[in-house]
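Researcher: For the record, we're logging two predictions in this thread. I'll number them. Prediction 1 follows.
Model: Prediction 1, sequence and structure:
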Amino acid sequence: PLEYNMAKLNAIDFNKGCYVGQELISRTTYRGSIRKSVFQVRAENDFSENFRTIIIKRNNQEVEIGKILSFYGKKAIALLKFTEIN
């Protein structure tokens, strides 16, 4: 839920009593250890069914930084890794 920005959409109640996954979500929120999140990405050309992985070149090596979750035309929603973006 945190990777999909549910806390920013007020879909997670941090004051509520017990619920499934409460410990993990609380610990991740207060320690700030989210490693990936959902972003909107755009391309110069339309996305295609074959394009599911986002790869960049860094130091002459190809590095996978995320995956396309859904797309329409030149816009897509991707799950990107923070550790690889920086």
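Researcher: Logged. Prediction 2.
Model: Prediction 2, sequence and structure:
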Amino acid sequence: IYIKGNTYLTDQEIIDDSGLRNYPSFILSTKSNIKKKLLKNEIIKKVTINKKIGNVIIITVEENTPVFIYENKTILSNGKSVDKEFDLPTLINKVDEDMLNKLAEKYNNIDDEIKLMISEIKYDPNNIDKERFLFTMNDGNYVYITLYKITSINEYIKLLPKLNETGKGVLYLDSGNYFEKFKN
């Protein structure tokens, strides 16, 4: 049994979910049965099963990306939630389901390197933008962002040297693209 394309699920989890753990009959293990069992796992978006001569089964999966933690559940890029834990930022306040789904979808457009730098997310709408969030960064800075401009946070690493010269503060990428140093 060969597993390809998985990042968030282990090979063993996929084998267990597929029903192939105890190596059942190669002939009786139909591709459609294996696929149906695997698609019950919310993390799996798509799956392809290939059977080859010599009792070889190749399972190729495409996963829904875990994006953040909300109410002790992991939210996936498709907006669904799972109980499996990952080391992800936490959405710390209540949001409605529509906003949660929008955030999950848009958050997936942030570079992985930047995602690792975000520790908390707070829904923080104002009079101008109802899709505004505050990201707490691991380095002590804060970043205001809107879902419309969420990919602008991908420039954070390029901006970091200039921010470090000024000191810690709040980067407003939601409007105006400016930095405000914390007051001592």
